[in-house]
């Protein structure tokens, strides 16, 4: 909760204003029954019209003050709640964006979305309530008790009785409903999870005609949420009538006891009516206080869920003495690198050592799951090495600022990722102020210009969320063009040519060599054709290096490579490589 409280600090002056307004509201409300009692006792009973007018006018002014104070308190508390929620949402977004892959895996995406939306909204609603009631209810409650006791001591037991009844009812509601609030939020997580997963995998669901199964799964989660919601709402809808009953019964009790006191000339009629209003004010204050006891734990549940995210420090940070990698040459060196995913028992990569030089292409090949993508993801520090070190121009990348390290890298992920917008907006993701000529050049090298030209709107062609309106190969080419626009020193291609036909693959590699040939290229590939011209090929097998060399060297010396090659190349091609 401490994480959350700091978001309210900037608003302390406004909170103080709210407290002042609420104090004014409570004082004015407490004064009203006294004036009413005076009007009855000294105006109506004594038929003194000028007293009635005078006191009535004062009452009107006091009532006006109540309206002003209530309005101000409402306005300010809504402002504080909305602004603090905005700050919390921004902090959540910033924190989640700074998370490394390891932290992201700890929270599900669905849960992060619920926490940033529903939980923040919950906290916002509770903030308004708490800001308004936490001050107002105690001031009004204590003030009304003092005033009621001053008006009539013999009647005071009726209030005690009513308060006791209210506390009992609220305690019952508290114990019945509270545990459900926690479950409610986690059920919402589940709904978001199923919804998100199904929507992104809709085509697979359809292809396997699993709609009924998915509907059942969703219905199950939905039904659970409905059950809890109904339970909570039932309990809450029972609460209001029960409380109204207590209030009405206590009014009757006051009239009954009060009339006997009036009869015995121990109480004035006006005082009895004023007492009744004080009793209502006391009961309402207790009602507010107990309502807060219900609201606060609910807000605490949401606050804790938000705090749990804010509390997590990203595991990959800039070292305090980090240096900037300004205009690096681009030499990447792995020195005895081993890597295990967080919480994984076994290492994914063991004792990897190699150097990737500028102006050279270093290719990584190996069977599925051999650790190729893991290896490449260590270079931009998506994960940190577990043992050993990776050097950029001789400096450990953990000592280079993440920004300048990533600035030096053009990363093209295995799954081309585009954002909603246009082709141009996606390319400019790499360089905000890229000119049309620069974009054309990059698209030309990435072999994307042909299909962009065919689009009715060219670079301004809309791209749907996730790039669903372009083909897999086009997505890969646009991802490559995006990386090219950045003009980095190091290119990391994680199986980025897999969706390209052989001709485009070859043309792209040729253009890359011609235009940006002095950069460092690290290419992960499944296809031998893509990498057989590479200056250095690293063969990975179960996270270990099975061989390093050129195509022809590896054909002779590395059995794993030979196996991959012979499954993909013809005898003639193998012969050319020097095997036959
Ligand atoms: N985020 C992760 N957490 C835990 N283990 C992972 C994670 N990502 C990958 N792995 C495991 O690490 C191993 C290597 O995976 P990696 O994706 O690097 O292989 P790859 O050689 O790129 O495979 P492919 O060619 O199929 O893409 C696999 O056994 C995989 O299950």
UniProtKB/TrEMBL annotation:
One cellular-component annotation, GO: plasma membrane
GO molecular function, one term: ATP binding
Chief location of this protein within or outside the cell: membrane
Transcription found in the keyword field: no
Keywords: ATP-binding, Cell membrane, Membrane, Nucleotide-binding, Transmembrane, Transmembrane helix, Transport
Cell compartment(s), UniProt: Cell membrane
Transmembrane segments: 52-76, 130-149, 155-177, 235-258, 278-296
Domain ABC transporter: 332-567
Xref: InterPro entries: AAA+_ATPase (IPR003593), ABC1_TM_dom (IPR011527), ABC1_TM_sf (IPR036640), ABC_transporter-like_ATP-bd (IPR003439), ABC_transporter-like_CS (IPR017871), P-loop_NTPase (IPR027417), Type_1_exporter (IPR039421)
Membrane topology, record value: Multi-pass membrane protein
Domain ABC transmembrane type-1: 16-298
Domain of life according to the entry: Bacteria
Protein name per UniProt: ABC transporter ATP-binding protein
């Amino acid at each position: 909760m401490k994480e959350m409280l700091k978001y309210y600090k900037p608003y302390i002056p406004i909170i103080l204003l709210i407290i002042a307004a609420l104090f004014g509201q409570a004082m004015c409300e407490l004064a009203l029954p006294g004036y009413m009692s005076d009007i009855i006792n000294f105006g109506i009973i004594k038929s003194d019209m000028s007293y009635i007018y005078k006191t009535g006018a004062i009452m009107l002014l006091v009532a006006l003050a109540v309206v002003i104070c209530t309005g101000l308190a409402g306005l300010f508390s809504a402002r504080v709640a909305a602004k603090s929620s905005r700050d919390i949402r921004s902090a959540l977004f910033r924190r989640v964006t700074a998370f490394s892959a390891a932290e992201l895996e700890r929270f599900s995406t669905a849960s992060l979305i619920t926490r940033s939306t529903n939980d923040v909204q919950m906290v916002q609603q509770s903030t308004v309530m708490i800001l308004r009631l936490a001050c107002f209810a105690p001031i009004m409650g204590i003030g009304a008790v003092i005033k009621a006791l001053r008006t009539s001591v013999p009647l005071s037991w009726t209030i005690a009785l009513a308060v006791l009844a209210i506390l009992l009812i609220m305690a019952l509601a508290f114990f019945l409903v509270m545990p459900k609030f926690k479950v409610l939020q986690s059920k919402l997580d589940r709904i978001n999870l199923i919804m998100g997963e199904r929507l992104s995998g809709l085509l697979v669901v359809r292809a396997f005609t699993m709609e009924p199964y998915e509907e059942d799964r969703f219905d199950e989660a939905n039904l659970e949420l409905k059950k809890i919601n109904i339970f909570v709402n039932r309990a809450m809808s029972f609460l209001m009538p029960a409380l109204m009953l207590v209030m009405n019964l206590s009014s009757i009790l006051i009239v009954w006891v009060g009339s006997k006191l009036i009869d015995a000339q121990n109480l004035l009629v006006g005082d009895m009516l004023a007492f009744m209003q004080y009793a209502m004010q006391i009961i309402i204050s207790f009602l507010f206080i107990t309502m807060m006891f219900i609201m606060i734990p609910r807000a605490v549940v949401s606050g804790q869920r938000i705090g749990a995210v804010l509390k997590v420090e990203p595991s990959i940070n800039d070292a305090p003495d980090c240096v900037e990698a300004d205009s690096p040459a681009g030499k990447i060196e792995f020195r005895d690198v081993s890597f295990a995913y967080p919480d994984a028992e076994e290492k994914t990569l063991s004792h990897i050592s190699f150097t990737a030089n500028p102006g050279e292409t270093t290719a990584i090949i190996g069977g599925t799951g051999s650790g190729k993508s893991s290896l490449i993801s260590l270079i931009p520090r998506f994960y940190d090495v577990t043992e050993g070190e990776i050097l950029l121009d001789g400096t450990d990348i953990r000592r280079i600022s993440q920004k300048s390290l990533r600035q030096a890298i053009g990363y093209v992920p295995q799954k081309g990722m585009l954002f909603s917008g246009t082709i141009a907006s996606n390319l400019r993701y790499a360089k905000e102020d890229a000119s049309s000529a620069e974009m054309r050049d990059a698209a030309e090298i990435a072999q994307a210009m042909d299909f962009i030209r065919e689009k009715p709107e060219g670079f301004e062609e809309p791209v749907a969320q996730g790039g669903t309106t372009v083909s897999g190969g086009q997505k890969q080419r646009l991802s490559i063009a995006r990386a090219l626009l950045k003009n980095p020193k190091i290119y990391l291609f994680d199986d980025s040519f897999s969706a390209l036909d052989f001709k485009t693959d070859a043309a792209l590699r040729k253009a890359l060599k011609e235009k940006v040939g002095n950069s460092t290229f690290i290419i992960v590939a499944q296809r031998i054709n893509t990498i057989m011209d590479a200056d250095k090929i690293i063969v990975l097998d179960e996270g270990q290096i099975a061989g390093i060399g050129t195509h022809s060297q590896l054909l002779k010396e590395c059995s794993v490579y030979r196996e991959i090659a012979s499954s993909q190349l013809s005898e003639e091609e193998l012969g050319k490589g020097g095997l036959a």
